[in-house]
Amino acid sequence: MINYRKIAIIGCGSVGASIAFSLMQRGLCSELVLIDANRAKAEGEAMDLSHGLPYTASMNIHAGNYEEVGDCVLIIITAGAIQKSGETRLDLIDKNVAILKNILPNITRQGFEGMLLIVSNPVDVLTYAARRISGYPRQRVIGSGTVLDTARLKYLLCQQLRVDSRSVHAVIIGEHGDSELAVWSGANISGIDLDHFYELRGREDFQSFIKNMYEDVRDSAYEIIERKGATYYGIAMAVARITESILKDEHSVLPVSVVLEGEYGLQGLALSVPSIVGKEGLETILEIPLSESEQKALYASAAQLNEVIHKLSL
Fold first, then answer.
1. Please, which of 13, 96, 125, 255 could form a disulfide with 80 given CB 3.0 to 4.6 Å?
2. Where in the sequence numbering do the catalytic residues fall?
3. What is the pTM of this model?
């Protein structure tokens, strides 16, 4: 039986620990199990987090093992090699697929019936691999996708246009990586087309503006890694947002990574596209209108991932 208030995080590095902290602050579960190959690390993180519980919601945070995940509503996988300066997310494939092959059988043998949320990079490749390895239906296996990239885009737009980021409606789709694309054709500020709002702000050269915005979003992770070695706070809040939609059955539209089965004319891979997310995981993949250039960019992103996926041994 699924415990809808129990979550496990596998991997207690900077990303996993930051996600645990974000979930704790939001009070999204009553039990949080931390699992890591280094048991002492998981224990230390659980202790550190638990000492802050008097100032948050009541919760049981503890280090655990795979025997405890069978009744979880959600398992968040962050375990894997981290992206180093000069590396792309795709450079991590072989290392992290091998780690996934080790983790997933430990989950499936527990009779787990909840959802898997893949966060490790390259997230689209690993989301596809997780579904193939686990055998779970696609609605139960999603990746964090471009939820963070989309937040970065909204933040940069709000800074440049001097408007509340909650009024910005824009999305990044495709690979969570260098081939991702911004859907400018549908971007708006509270219903006002982005190009028109840009003009209302007295700005000129819209094409140069959106080109710079896209490049800044695409390269954000590299910039952060160059400065501090890793990214973890932003992705932690993005994962908490996905988790909230699942646990509260919000039916939120989020650009998560999902296995495509004909949507957008694509199949046999996972990509980040706007999808409705609720208590059953993936509910509906939304095929949003794309301009001709955006459609081409999406196909180019898919082609790059397909080339990688076809080399995997799953």
1. 96
2. 176
3. 0.95
